[in-house]
Write a structure and sequence with these properties.
Mean pLDDT: 95
Radius of gyration: 25 Å
Structural class: alpha+beta
Largest sheet: 10 strands, antiparallel
Oligomer: single chain
Distance between the termini: 70 Å
Helix content: 25-40%
Number of helices: 13
Strand content: 15-25%
């Protein structure tokens, strides 16, 4: 007998509380459509069973959101009777909560009705609205009981947006979803009533509408202002959902440019195999996240065709297995007019000077240098981190973040020690911004002078003929203890030799080799210690390496080469400010530490 499916009658809490207090991993969801919290407690991958009020509230968030997503799917499949029945249940539940904001929400939260946060209400409302709009395309006679729900959702979005923008937070990612919720609920309500939707002025074009939000929230280099891959996609997905049935020709040209630029960002940071680095506070690896990326890619490529969006979608499907629910078919024809011209593929070097990332691609290596502003509440203390990927291997990734309710592990993954950055005297970097010193078609140089008082650091990343060069120079007016950090996401072997560079081998679908050297005459100690790997499982141990020197000035140099990329790198020698790289075929090249 198939398990019973029902909608829970209880309100949801904050999904970030769905985390094991002992191990820091997101708990197993169980059957979210059963409406019943897992018997015996939610399972942890390491054997725990967790059951308390916050975890139950978090599970209810996931359950209600799963039901809203299922209602969209039922509407698309034409399973009308069940979709209408469940929507009517939600209409009754929401009516029972009228005038009651969630009293268990934390003080910093903009309170919702069904959930702790108005943001969560809005995300749920978007799917509810789109489910009704799809049903209305095939008739409206049975949808009248849902009208009070749609009207209430639109008003709730309007009230929450007013509270938010009243605080000067037009650029908040909440605003994107409140506009998407108002648009989805209002459009559905008009369809049920047989009216033409006239909410453009309120939800798209108005002073606090989607277009104004995008103009305020997206930097001139295409990134959402927080510089987080996850929140960048979060805002772009909300915008695309809000623009259902829109004719791109009717969208203001500058807004289309913003949307195209946001797609370009994803195309630039994604690896050729579709990995999206979890820059600044996003989940590292999560099934629901893969579904979000697939949904975004399915809509975005109908507006801004991009080959890399196709690759992102393929990888998301691989992560989801059989659980993508036919999103491409459901979202087909999302816009009312033709797409923009296809976007060109990114070149070897892409620099985002405002947000502070540089991406270098060559010879099987995809490198990201992080040097920008802190990024607000989602920033990490990670200036001059260097992230290294293959096509499908995260050799040295941004480690991502755990569910936010786990205070200790969230702090760990925000810290300088968790990132492939640098440290002075073993201390944490300050929250600060770095600066771009220069770039060309094969290299980028960036620096920071506010991470530690009296310390200046400069990192130059350069593409060689079949390898990548990394030159990190740290200096102060007096001797300090400087450390350059390796933070693998994969298995790592390290070999210290009697003479010559230290060798590292990074394993995975693809293999990466590294040669590591430093300024002559400055003793550098390579210390290997076990430490937490990426944030999807803080208990997974990886081999961390710290190269540490006591000096007024030191350069840490590395040459990385993907296996099979070309003649092997055999020489990595630093003489003063010049690194000599030699290959097995006898060729050599010189790289200076700073331009």
């Amino acid at each position: 007998m198939a398990p019973l499916k029902r909608i829970a009658r209880e309100r949801g809490g904050w999904w970030h509380a769905y985390v094991c207090p002992a191990h820091g991993v997101e708990l197993d969801h169980g059957d979210l459509l059963s409406g019943v919290f897992p018997e015996g407690g939610a399972r942890c991958a390491h054997g725990c069973r967790v059951d308390d009020e916050k975890v139950r509230g978090a599970w209810l968030v996931l359950s209600h959101q799963a039901w809203a997503r299922r209602l969209r799917l039922l509407a698309h499949r034409g399973e009308r009777a069940e979709a209408v029945a469940r929507l009517t249940e939600y209409a009754q539940l929401y009516a029972e909560l009228a005038g009651r904001q969630h009293d268990a929400a934390q003080g910093w939260m903009l309170r919702g009705r069904l959930f702790h946060q108005a943001l969560t209400d809005a995300i749920w409302a978007v799917n509810i609205g789109h489910a009704v709009s799809t049903l209305a395309e095939r008739g409206t006679a049975d949808l009248a009981p849902v009208l009070p729900l749609l009207d209430a959702l639109e008003q709730a979005a309007l009230d929450a947006r007013g509270a938010l923008t009243g605080q000067g937070l037009l650029a908040s990612n909440y605003t994107a979803w409140l506009n998407a919720a108002g648009s989805a609920a209002g459009r559905a309500s008009a369809a049920v009533r047989g009216l033409e939707w006239d909410g453009d002025k309120r939800w798209l074009e108005g002073e606090h509408g989607l277009y104004a939000h995008l103009r305020a929230a997206v930097a001139d280099d295409g990134w959402e202002w927080e510089g987080s891959t996850y929140y960048h996609g979060f805002v772009l997905r909300a915008a695309l959902l809000a623009l259902r049935s829109a004719d791109p020709a009717a969208v203001p040209a500058d807004v289309l440019d913003v949307l195209a630029g946001m797609v370009d960002v994803l195309a630039a940071v994604a690896t050729p195999g579709g990995i999206l680095p979890a820059l600044h506070d996003g989940p590292y690896l999560r099934g629901p996240l893969a579904l979000e990326w697939l949904e975004l890619a399915s809509m975005a490529r109908q507006l801004v065709p991009s080959a890399r969006l196709d690759t992102i979608a393929v990888r998301a499907r691989q992560e989801l297995g059989d659980h993508d629910d036919g999103l491409d078919r459901e979202l087909a024809g999302w816009f009312a007019g033709p797409a923009l011209p296809p976007r060109p593929a990114p070149g070897a070097v892409t620099v985002f000077p405002t947000t502070g990332y540089a991406v270098l691609r060559g010879a099987g290596i995809h490198a990201v240098l992080d040097f920008g502003p802190h990024g607000g509440s989602h920033g990490h203390r990670d200036k001059l981190s260097l992230y290294l990927y293959g096509d499908t291997t995260a050799w040295q990734p941004d480690p991502g973040q755990v569910p936010y309710a786990h205070t200790e592990f969230r702090e760990l993954y925000t810290s300088s020690g968790a990132h492939p950055a640098f440290r002075a005297d073993g201390a944490e970097q300050a929250e600060c911004a770095g600066f771009l010193l220069g770039s060309d078609r094969a290299s980028v140089t960036a620096g920071v002078s506010e991470a530690y008082e009296g310390v200046r650091a400069v990192r130059r990343i350069a593409l060689g003929s079949c390898y990548l060069v990394d030159l990190l120079t740290v200096s102060a007016e007096s001797a300090r203890r400087f450390t350059a950090q390796l933070r693998p996401g994969t298995a790592l072997d390290i070999r210290v030799r009697a003479a010559g560079p230290v060798r590292t081998t990074w394993h995975g679908d693809e293999t990466l080799h590294g040669l590591h050297t430093h300024s002559a005459g400055v003793p550098v100690r390579p210390l290997t210690v076990p430490g937490p790997g990426p944030a999807d499982d803080p208990q997974r141990v990886r081999t961390r390496v710290d190269f540490t020197a006591e000096a007024e000035r030191v350069t840490f140099a590395a040459v990385y080469q993907a296996a099979g990329a070309g003649p092997a790198v055999t020489v990595a020698r630093l003489d003063g400010d010049v690194l000599t790289v030699g290959l097995a075929d006898g060729s050599t090249a010189l790289f200076r530490t700073e331009d």
